[in-house]
Amino acid sequence: MFYPESSVPIRHVAMEYNKLSKTELVRILDDIRSLRFGHGKPDPLEYINLMEALLLERYELHAQIQSLKDSFSRVDESLACYLELFDSAPVGYVVLDAAGCIVKMNPSACALVRRDRAVVGGLAFAIMLTDASRFVFRKHFAECRRFENQSKSVALNLLIEEVALPIVMTGCFSGNYRGVFLSPAQLA
Domain spans of the chain? Predict the structure, then answer.
C-alpha cells in the first residue's frame, strides 16, 4: 500500500485509502503516531509513508470541510427562501413559543393586529384577544401541543382598538420548531 517512490501520484494513494474502512484508517494513524525517529538515521520509507498518510489526512479533512460548507450553503438558501415566503405571505403568520408568547410575526399579521413588528416579540399573544377568546385560545393552544403536527382551527376575536375583529386561527405545534405556528385569517 505504501510506495517508496515519490513518482506514484497521490491521487492513486488516496483512491486506495478511500477503499479502507474508518477502523483501518485509525489503525494506520495509530501506527504513524507510534513511529519513533531518533536512534540512528530515520528510515526513508517510514518518512515517505508518514508523509503519504499525512497528505491523505489533509485530503480527507479538506473534503469534509468542503462538504460542510456545501451543507451550510444549502441551509442558508433554504432559510432565505423560508424567510422570503414568511414575510411576503398574504395571510398573517405568528410564531409562538411554548408559553404562548410571540417569537415573530409576518407583516400581514402585524397589519391585522395593528402593531409594529419591532415591539410584538415577547408579548403574550392572548393579550391581543377579547376576554372570551383568551380562554378559547388557551384551550386551543394546549390541544395543538397535545396533537403534534396536526392542524387545528378555531374562531377567535382579536381586540383591535376596543373593537372585536373575528378571525379563524389555525395552529400546529411542531417539536422540530419548538413553537406553534398560527395563521390568522379574517372571516368573510
Answer: 10-83, 89-186
Rounded distance, CA 155 to CA 47, Å? 76
In CATH terms, the fold of domain 89-186 is: Beta-Lactamase (3.30.450)
Interatomic CA distance for residues 166 and 39, integer angstroms:
88
Map residue 184 onto helix, strand or coil: strand
So what's the pLDDT on residue 134? 92
pTM value is 0.57
| Residue type present at position 131 | D
Q: 35 is written with which cell numbers? A: 513511529
What letter would DSSP give residue 19? T
Residues 6+ away with beta carbon under 8 Å from 117: 104, 105, 107, 110
pLDDT tens digits, one per residue of 73-118: 999 999 899 889 888 988 888 888 878 888 888 898 888 888 898 8
User: What would the grid cell of residue 16 be?
Assistant: 486506495
| Separation of alpha carbons 94 and 74, rounded Å | 25
Beta strands in 19-151 (DSSP E): 94-96, 102-105
Distant-in-sequence, close-in-space partners of 47: CB < 8 Å, separation ≥ 6:
37
Q: What is the pLDDT of residues 132-181, one digit of tens each?
A: 999 998 888 877 777 777 777 888 888 888 888 888 887 777 664 444 44
Q: 379563524: which residue's cell?
A: 168
